[in-house]
């Protein structure tokens, strides 16, 4: 399975900060925002990853992330000239995906908590259809919302409904078989002028090939699209890391525990760091995985 991080968009809700820098390059406590969605793909076992961003911001992502060898992964990069919907990622990334399955994660989404790694690794093993995740929110009208029947089966997904039929929003990470390329290519823009990811999910639902897994209370899903949400996310990560002494979305640590790099490689990475991260990575070598 291949992965795509969609890190484009204008970030208008974070203006004027985003006038000069992509919101996915802003810090969320101690690391750039894009590290968090990258960590989700890496925890799922995905090593071939396409970064999609604007023509202006893409060089900055290249400078930050490089080719990925430091973490045992491989990055490619593609431009999104204009933000025309989340499903546009599959048109831009069609040649990258090729004949493979693909996972899409939004560049401003953060996932953390017990059971999340197992959930995305199960999803990455799909052979046919699609897997998305539902998460209980208090303001479902802001999201794509899943509607369930009396037996708990998903019967509809509605984008930003005025009268939501449940409190379960569809989160910003999606796993698809290769059919998603043709489904996305056949979409028509919505009334917002965008290729909606909800329409992709509905297409799988109509086929009977959509599985919605519900993330429980032990998982945090954070969207960092506003100043308030960005501040809250930073505070959340700070509290977790300082309380546990373990880092969230530490790509070096994840790469090591996933077997993408070996101990000698991690030692070399740690030796090149003069801050607290270097000491942390040296300590990682002496304890079991906490992912």
Structure description:
The strands form four sheets. A seven-stranded mixed β-sheet has the order 5-4-1-6-11-8-12. The two termini are 20 Å apart. The longest helix is centred in the C-terminal third of the chain and has 18 residues. It is 33% helix and 24% strand. The protein has eleven helices and 13 strands. The model has no long low-confidence stretch (mean pLDDT 95). It is an alpha/beta fold and 291 residues long.
Task: Summarize it.
With 291 residues, the chain is of the alpha/beta class. Helices cover 33% and strands 24% of the residues. Helix 10 runs antiparallel to helix 11 (276-284).
The total beta strand count reads 13
Structural class computed from helices and strand pairing: alpha/beta
- Unreliable residue stretches: none
**Kindly, what is the distance between the CA atoms of the first and last residues, rounded to a whole number of angstroms?**
20 Å
Mean pLDDT: 95
So how many helices?
11
From the structure above, extract its key features.
291 residues; 11 helices; alpha/beta; two-stranded antiparallel ribbon
SSE layout and pairings?
Layout: E1 2-6, E2 27-28, E3 31-32, H1 35-43, E4 48-53, H2 58-65, E5 74-79, H3 88-92, H4 94-97, E6 102-106, E7 109-113, H5 116-124, E8 130-136, E9 144-148, E10 154-159, E11 168-176, H6 180-185, H7 197-207, E12 210-215, E13 219-223, H8 227-244, H9 251-257, H10 263-271, H11 276-284
Parallel strand pairs: 1-4, 1-6, 4-5, 8-12
Antiparallel strand pairs: 2-3, 6-11, 7-13, 8-11, 9-10
Helix pairs in contact: 10-11
């Amino acid at each position: 399975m291949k992965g795509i991080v969609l890190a484009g968009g204008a970030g208008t809700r974070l203006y004027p900060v985003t006038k000069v820098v992509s919101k996915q390059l802003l810090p969320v406590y101690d690391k750039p925002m894009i590290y968090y969605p990258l960590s989700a793909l890496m925890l799922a076992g995905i090593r071939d990853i396409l970064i999609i961003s604007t023509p202006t911001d893409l060089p900055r992502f290249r400078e930050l992330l490089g080719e990925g060898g430091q973490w045992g992964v491989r990055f490619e990069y593609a431009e999104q000239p204009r933000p025309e919907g989340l499903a546009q990622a599959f048109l831009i990334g069609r040649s990258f995906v090729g004949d493979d399955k693909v996972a899409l994660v939004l560049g401003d989404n953060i996932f953390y908590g017990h059971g999340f790694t197992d959930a995305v690794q199960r999803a990455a093993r799909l052979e046919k259809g699609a897997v998305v995740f539902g998460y209980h929110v208090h303001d479902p009208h802001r999201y794509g919302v899943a509607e369930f029947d009396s037996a708990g089966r998903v019967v509809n997904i509605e984008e930003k409904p005025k009268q939501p039929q449940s409190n379960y929003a569809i989160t910003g990470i999606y796993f698809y078989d290769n059919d998603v390329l043709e489904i996305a290519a056949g979409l028509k823009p919505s009334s917002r002028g965008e290729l909606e990811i909800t329409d992709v999910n509905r297409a799988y639902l109509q086929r009977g090939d959509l599985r919605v897994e519900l993330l429980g209370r032990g998982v945090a899903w954070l969207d960092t699209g506003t100043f308030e949400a960005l501040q809250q996310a930073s505070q959340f990560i700070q509290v977790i890391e300082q309380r546990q002494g373990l880092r969230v979305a530490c790509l070096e640590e994840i790469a090591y525990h996933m077997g993408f790099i070996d101990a000698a490689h991690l030692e070399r990475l740690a030796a090149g760091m003069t801050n607290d991260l270097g000491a942390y990575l040296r300590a990682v070598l002496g304890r079991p995985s906490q992912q």
